What we know:
- The protein is of the alpha/beta class.
- Helices cover 58% and strands 8% of the residues.
- Bound molecules: zinc ion (ZN).
- Zinc ion (ZN) binds at residues 51-53, 58-59, 62, 64-65.
Amino acid sequence: MPWRDLTSQPLVRDLLKRxxxxxxxHHAWIFAGEESETEPVALGFAQALxxxxxxxxxxxxxxxxxxxxxxxxxDVHALKAASRSRQILIxxxxxxxxxxxxxxxxxxxxxxxxxxxxxxxxxxQNAFLKxxxxxxxxxxxxxxxxxxxQLRETVLSxxxxxxxxxxTRRAKSERESQIEVWLEELIAKKTExxxxxxxxxxxxxxxxxxxxLREEKQAAFAxxxxxxxxxxxxxxxxxxxxxxxDAQAQAEYLRERARLLRxxxxxxxxxxxxxxxxxxxxDLARLLAGNVNEPLALEVAFLQIAQAGVETRAAExx
Length: 318
Ligand SMILES: [Zn+2]
């Protein structure tokens, strides 16, 4: 499958093609978006780097292209979160490094693809940072993530971040549609309500949505030990299982919340909101990941976004 067939992300595709043609390849890339979108591009890039035709494109049929597509090329490494912990752990990073420092067996350029890179835990990120600082020769890293803000600033700053637009294949969720209605009222307004009032309204509805979302995930991951299980499991084991499920529910909640925030950002972008508003959403995502007062953070962010929206329209009228 050559470049021209990667049709769903034309801007990203052209950026990669150009940097390949100019031989100006950054050694670490963050592909920010859904994996259904980012993974094919990362694999295509790995193929273009190693295709036997060596014309900057990829044929999809030579041995190198076929092996990369099938996930069995010895110099194209894929790293995924361990299924049990749902994290990327330090031994996985070490093993990846070992593979990368070996001489390439076939490839012109070795490639490491880190799926859900935001799931690197703290120590894994530290280890990976060292790899980024002293990268193995002729090696490219692709970090695929829907939540780049979960990565440490030191990792982010060493990578070239490429935003992907949302996939067209994924249907818009009910919540996303609801948010768009609220955003219309926040920004594009027909009502005469002042900006603080609209911001407060949006923030409290969004908070209510997040609360329902959290409860939904907790219910989905709740475990109902029946009597037999209760007898066969030690209390400590039950507690451990409950804690694991709880952590999974929390991770799912955070993932979904990040997706909703991204949708808000995309909507604002599509409506021509100023760049400062888009940054506010980034800042908000970062704040929410820390230990902040959620309602307050939301109100402040959306007040600024509402005000920026008003200013844009006033400028248009002038
Ligand atoms: Zn090929």
